[in-house]
């Protein structure tokens, strides 16, 4: 865990802007105050403004209101403690872990998808650094054959991180690169293959189909693959990220049903936004777990998503060094 050094400290820094809107506001609203209906209404507006999501906000506020009316709580301090506890309970432990291939059964394949510019390639560098730190061997596949400079960008990260890249022709078929990358991963016996893909809008049908094709090539090459199909979401986009999650999940669902489309979300750029409450809205709107959060531009700026640490950082009184 040394890689995630000072989890709370870094997360606190990353969440500085969100905290300003959400928790500093909530603290000054609630601490030392007697509860009344007007205060509860104000609490509701603040939660919505921080992108917590209408469903979760409604549920939380309804409970506060009921407890207040039943005489169970009477102060803002009690509400703050209640909010922290309830938010931490939203995420079960098991679905936040990276799914790995069973030991000895070939490479784990992670397919990384998302809209243009959300941070896919940077997030891959972060995942790569994280896995390398855990002692795993990693190979990268440059399936973004579309954008000029995309392969080079991945290669620069790979050189820095000391891993190899499998690439193809600029403008070539990304599925062919995925095929070659899977073959190379198996031949070399690497632990994890991470595939970078070109950015695409969730509304671009042919490009979404290309992603489905990519995934079936992996499934044919590597048993159980891709073990993770991650969607990178840019936290600064707020509610639009929810639509991306829903559409990518739908497009990537196998036609025959069964397995889910997306297996996880990498939430990037949490450091640049006041919309960190989106983590809660994502949970509410989709069943896809946030597995990692990105809090900066270097490979070390990554955290495994930990609800306890997240909520603590969000509600921290002050951010040392932030
Ligand atoms: N502040 C901050 N910047 C980030 C983070 N993740 C990525 N970025 C920046 O976002 C920009 C886009 O990152 P890329 O990794 O190239 O995004 P991409 O999704 O691969 O882009 P395309 O391949 O063009 O679709 C770069 O300037 C990154 O440094 C993050 O967690 N925090
Ligand atoms: Mg990229």
Can you describe this structure?
The protein has 322 residues and is of the alpha/beta class. Strand 6, helix 11 and strand 7 form a beta-alpha-beta unit. It folds into 2 domains: 82 residues, SRP54, nucleotide-binding domain (Four Helix Bundle (Hemerythrin (Met), subunit A)), CATH 1.20.120; 207 residues, 3-Layer(aba) Sandwich (Rossmann fold). It is elongated and about 65 Å long. The chain contains 12 helices and 8 strands. The chain starts with 6 loop residues before the first helix and ends in an 8-residue tail after the last helix. Helix 3 packs antiparallel against helix 4 and helix 6 packs parallel to helix 7. The N terminus is likely disordered. An 8-stranded mixed beta sheet has the order 3-2-4-1-5-6-7-8, sandwiched between helices. The longest helix has 17 residues. Magnesium ion (MG) binds next to helix 6. The site of magnesium ion has 5 residues, from helix 6.
What distinguishing features does this structure have?
alpha/beta, elongated, binds guanosine-5'-triphosphate, eight-stranded mixed β-sheet, Rossmann fold, 322 residues, binds magnesium ion, Four Helix Bundle (Hemerythrin (Met), subunit A), single chain, 2 domains, 12 helices, 47% helix
């Amino acid at each position: 865990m040394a890689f995630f050094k000072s989890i709370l400290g870094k997360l606190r820094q990353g969440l500085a802007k969100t905290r300003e809107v959400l928790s500093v506001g909530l603290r000054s609203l609630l601490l030392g105050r007697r509860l009344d209906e007007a205060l509860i209404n104000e609490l509701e507006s603040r939660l919505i403004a921080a992108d917590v999501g209408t469903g979760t906000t409604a549920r939380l506020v309804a409970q506060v209101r009921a407890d207040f009316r039943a005489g169970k709580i009477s102060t803002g301090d009690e509400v703050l403690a209640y909010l922290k506890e309830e938010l931490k309970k939203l995420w079960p432990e098991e679905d936040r872990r990276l799914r790995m291939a069973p030991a000895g059964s070939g490479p784990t394949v992670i397919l990384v998808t998302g809209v243009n510019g959300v941070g896919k390639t940077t997030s891959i560098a972060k995942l790569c650094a994280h896995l390398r730190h855990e002692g795993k061997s990693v190979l990268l596949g440059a399936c973004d054959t579309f954008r000029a400079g995309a392969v080079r960008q991945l290669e620069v990260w790979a050189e820095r991180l000391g891993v190899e890249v499998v690439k193809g022709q600029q403008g070539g078929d990304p599925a062919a690169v995925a095929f070659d990358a899977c073959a190379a991963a198996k031949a070399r016996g690497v632990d994890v293959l991470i595939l970078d893909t070109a950015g695409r809008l969730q509304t671009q049908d042919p490009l979404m189909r290309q992603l489905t094709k990519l995934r079936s090539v992996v499934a044919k090459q590597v048993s159980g693959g891709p073990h993770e199909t991650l969607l990178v979401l840019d936290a600064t986009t707020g509610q639009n990220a929810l639509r991306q999650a829903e559409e990518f999940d739908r497009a990537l669902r196998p036609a025959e049903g069964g397995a889910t489309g997306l297996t996880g979300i990498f939430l990037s750029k949490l450091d640049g936004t006041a919309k960190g409450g989106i983590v809660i809205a994502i949970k509410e709107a989709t069943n896809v777990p946030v597995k990692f959060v990105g809090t900066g531009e270097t490979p070390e700026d990554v955290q495994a998503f930990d609800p306890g640490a997240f909520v603590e950082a969000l509600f921290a009184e002050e951010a040392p060094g932030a």
